[in-house]
Amino acid sequence: MNRLLKPLGLAIAAASMMSIASPASAQLTVWEDYTPQKSVVELTYVKVDEGQMDTYLEGLRDTWVRANEIAKELGQIQSYGIYVVPYGSNEVNLVLRITYPNMATLDADKVEYDKFLAAWGKENMDSSNKTVLELYNKIRKIKGTYLLRELRMNLD
What we know:
Layout: H1 2-24, E1 34-36, E2 40-48, H2 53-73, E3 79-84, E4 94-100, H3 110-120, H4 122-139, E5 140-148, E6 151-153
Antiparallel strand pairs: 1-6, 2-4, 2-5, 3-4
Helix pairs in contact: 2-4
């Protein structure tokens, strides 16, 4: 029986490898077959301590959300969102999303920074920084931040 299973196993493994290798031979062309979108999405994965979600959300409302509203009004971001993770590996339980108009928006720009600071105010900036240091850093851990750019497939 073992003599029969070994060649059969090798044949299955070889067939599996062929099926994996086949898609690698596809030759898509950017702009023709798919189009990179200009907007860039930033996702921040957060693990909030048990029993602290409402405390963290209250802090976000007064800092992150209000700051993003100003950035949105200034055209510095397109949108933002807060997502709870209802199930999974429990590595993260909250995801913060910011959508920027393009990658250039993320470049250092004193003029844009000054516009934001004038609208947000130094007091709010100082208060937000204090909240991060005194509250957020005690009740949550940032598990990672990722930038994504959508690739839209061109179907015809």
